[in-house]
Each structure stands twice: as C-alpha cells, then as structure tokens.
Amino acid sequence: MDEDFEMPPVGGMNGDDEMDFGDDASFLKVGEEKEIQQGLKKKLLKEGEGFETPENGDEVEVHYTGTLLDGTKFDSSRDRGTPFKFTLGQGQWIEISLIMIDKAQSQARISLSQVIKGWDIGIKTMKKGENAVFTIPSELAYGESGSPPTIPANATLQFDVELLSWSSVKDICKDGGVFKKIVAAGEKWEMPKDLDEVLVKYVAKLEDGTVVGKSDGVEFTVKDGYFCPALAKAVKTMKKAEKVLLTVKPQCKTVFFFSCVFIDLGMVLHIISYSNLLINATDGFGEKGKPASGGEAAVPPNATLEIELELVSWKTVSEVTDDNKVIKKILKEGEGYERPNEGAVVKVKLIGKLGDGTVFLKKGHGEGEEPFEFKTDEEQVIDGLDKAVLKMKKGEVALVTIDPEYAFGSTESKQELAVVPPNSTLYYEVDLVSFDKERESWDMNTEEKIEAAGKKKEEGNAKFKAGKYALASKRYEKAVKYIEYDSSFSEEEKKQAKALKVACNLNDAACKLKLKEYRQAEKLCTKVLELESTNVKALYRRAQAYMELADLDLAEFDVKKALEVDPDNREVKVEQRRLKEKMKEFNKKEAKFYGNMFAKLSVKVKQQHRGECGSLALDVFLFSVPLPNFD
C-alpha cells in the first residue's frame, strides 16, 4: 500500500549558522570516527579526491542510505538507482522517498520536508568520491517531533553517504542578483579585470526558454559591459575557457552616493556643501525590460534571465602610469617573467600611428631591417614608450596608447613618415624582440659596486645641470642602492661608500626640492644627518623642506643648528631671514583667521513682521575639520 504523509517542519533547520566545521573532519583516516559538532559524528569509509570540499550554495549529488541505530533502513537512493541532488546550506524544501518494510512486506512512501541540518554540516566536510557514515543526533535531525511512523521522537540517525560530485553555485555580487553555476572549469588562475577586452559566447533565455540574446563571439571591454550588467560582473569571476550558467534576477538595488565640497582656509578644512544621490540599479533589465530588436525576442519587465556564458579569451589591458595616460593592451603574450630594467638595452619592432590611422613611424619591419635599439630611461624615445617597454616581456606584442603629456605634448614633431600634430594621442604597436638588463648590485663584487655608484652619481650630476631633475633623482637613488648594504666592504671601501651615500642623498634632496617633493627631501636629509649629524648642507636643505611643509618650528631648529656649526654661512643666513618673514606672515594670517571665526560665531537675524514686534535669533556655527599632515 502506498501512502503519502505530510511531515511537520523540522526544528532548528534555519540557515543562520554559517560556520565552517570541515577542517578537522576533512582529514580523517579510513576507519576513524570523529565528532564534528554538537554530537554529529563522521566515520570515514573511503577517501575522496584532492582537497576541495563543497560550500554553501553548491549543488551536490550524493548516494545515501539512512538507518536507525538498530539498523532499520528507512530510505536509500541506492535502492532507487538515482542519485539525490540538492543545494547545500539553503534549507530548501525537497522530496525524498521513504521505504518501510513492515511485517507484511508492504511498502509505504512518504515525503520529507527539508534537508536536515546534520546533512548541511556533514557534507561540507567531504571530498569528491568520499564515502562516510554520519551519526546525527536528533537535535540536528527531526528533534522531538520525529517523523512518524518510521522515525521516532528524539531519534539518532545514521546516513551512509557517498559524495559523487558537486557544481559550484555562487552569488557573485553577494546581493542575490546574479548566481553563477560552473558548467566547465576554466584554465589556469587568471581572471579579467575592468580594463581588459574579453571575447565571449553567450545565449540568454527567459525562464520559458525564449531566446532574448545570443552571440557566437563578441568582444567588449569589461568596464563598459555588454547586453546586460550581469555579463561584465560574471566574466570578472571567470577563467579562460570557463563555461557557466548565470541566473540573473530582475530586482532593483539601491546604490547610495555621498559627496562633499571642501574649502581650505588657512590650516582648517571647511565643509561648505554636501549632497546625496540614490541610484536604482539592476543586473538584468529590471522593471523596464528590453524591447525586441534584431530578431531577438523582447525581455518582459521583471523577468529572470538564464544566460549560458563562455569566456573564450581576453586581452590584458593595464595602466602603465598611475594617471591612466599610458595604456598597454597585450596582443601576444611574452615569454617567462623577466622584464627590462631602467638602463636596459632593448630591441623592438615599432609601428607608430595617429588617431586617424596615419603611420608616422615604422622601424624593424622592412625586409632585412634590424630591430630598433635604444637604452631605457635615457630619453632616447618618448616617455610613454619608454615606460611601456619596462612593463613588457621578451616576445610580447602590445598596443600602447600614449596621451600627449607622455608623447610630444603641445609641440608639433616631424617624424620619419609623417608630422605629428600638437596635442596628439599616439598609438604604438610594439614587439619586444630582446633586451639586455643593466647589471644589478647582487651581480657585482664590492669594488664594482663602488665604481657603479660613482658612475651613477656623475650621470645624476649631468642630468641635474641640464635641469632634468626627475632623471637625476633616479640616478642618485640607483647609486645609493649599489652601496646600500656594506657589511662585506673593507674599511676603506666603507669610507668611500659613506662619502657616496652622503653626496648622493644630498644631491637627491636638492632634486626633490626642485620637484616640490618636500617630504621626500626631508627624509633624504635625515638619512644624511644619521651619518653626519652636523652636516650643514643637510640641515639647510631639511630646513627648506620644513618651511614648505609649514613645519616652521622644525625649520627654525635646523637653521639655528646649522649656524652653530657654520656661523658665517651666507646661504643659511639668507634662509634664516626668509624663515623669519614666513613666521611673521603666518602669525598674521592665523590672528586674522581666528578673529573672523570668533566674530561670526553668533549671528542674530532680526525679522520684523508688520503688526508685531519681535526678533528671531539664529546661531550660525562654522563646521570645521583640522587638516592632517600628509606624508
């Protein structure tokens, strides 16, 4: 006789417990039994494969047999010959068959209402192919209610479970908007970023199977997106050749933006206005839907989409400079991990174009023509090209987009094949054929390090005299790096190294002052003073840096100390007079500012109305925030 019974909800089955109890239980030996949590025990019968275990949200497939402690079997997917599938950790409503053999050998089938909590905890500890027996206390099963007539109240249950497989299902935005199920695993570990150009195939369907979008190969920039926002969000979580099934929900999400406008008055920052902005966003097409176009069906309002998506490949696009004005797109991957360093000799093939496609430069592409050779960081090519080559590998081919600021700027430049107009953005196709790196300090003996440091110092001096302060600074920094660690130096070599460190750091500080990098200038002078505490040039230049940073008390201290060492130093005396003027000016500004602030602290606004006499008092307070000292 077949009977269906309605089972009561299982107590303690909510999904609030997000703890992971799999660490210990994932490393049992065959035949070993261990308690996982709250009386739940696991005994390993067969080891699984690898190290990965499923997580909440994954769709798992298992075979199982359920028994009471006395051995009475109440259910088995093995007997039915069909594996059981469910979503881990969601406490979803499911149906499984319950078979009871009574004295008359008749069978009864009932429906259970949930995956018990003991399953959610236990299966998260299993690897693919693993077989284990779970002993589940009633608190993690059916509790005091039991599941009449086959499972008594407060019954401890045993499940012999084999984890056949699982499919990873992730809420990729963590807001319930887009769920991703991996259908075919991808290659390697890299995933696209916002600037990258991806090539994808996709088929988008409604829940009834109606196709609303399709492409056998479309390329787009991740940050710009394509078709619907979910595609761009999904590809950022995918590997090359990965295939997934996306479920895109229609709900709108509210995004909140807050902005402030500040004004700097003296040493205080004032908020003069602020605004809020609320934007409703959706990962699909939301309440508006999408009209039919190009042979594709319309997307109705509030429709859920099912999207089959494959990430075929992508071209890596990166920012060469922090200001996003030199961009490199890889057309062909290079070899290994090595890249040129500053001072390396590189050989490249080049094609330079304007925005309209006009070729103004072509090198290394003619029949029998040798690649173009130049030394990096020597201004032998435009700055943007120089910086881009330093980010390339041997054999790499890249398209480099260079803003005028890193090219020829506002001046016209006559090139090999055409004239580059002022303010032109340039496009170079660069093939890095080979390079020879400049020797690093670890590849030199002590004598060679001191010699190399001396050469870099002289190069820096030449650049400084030519007004090329940034390049000069780099040379001085490189010189110091050669001799930074001198523990293996002889006493004579240590003296030479110290003199070079002092000279290079002082010269570098002068560069930083010219470049208005005052905090860096201060740090370089401090390094010198750690070696020579009475170095007048270091005290003088640090005082200059402190003055520009408005640390006037510290500047005064350094000036006084410098004059104690060298009372007749003309440059320091000039700086002392400048400092006194600056302090007077600052004190005057400060007095004026605070005088105005206190005058405005309380303002009374009188408003008289015809027929009545009175006043309205209004206190106005200026909201202010002290400015921090930025490094």
Automatic annotation (TrEMBL):
One Pfam short name: FKBP_C
Domain PPIase FKBP-type as annotated: residue spans: 57-167, 195-315, 343-436
Residues that span the membrane, as ranges: none
Enzyme class, UniProt record, top EC level: isomerase
Keywords attached to this entry: Isomerase, Repeat, Rotamase, TPR repeat
UniProt repeat feature TPR, residue ranges: 536-569
EC number: 5.2.1.8
Ranges where the record places region Disordered: 1-23
InterPro entries given in the database record: FKBP4/5/8-like, PPIase_dom_sf, PPIase_FKBP_dom, TPR-like_helical_dom_sf, TPR_rpt
Gene3D superfamilies: 3.10.50.40, Tetratricopeptide repeat domain
Protein name: peptidylprolyl isomerase
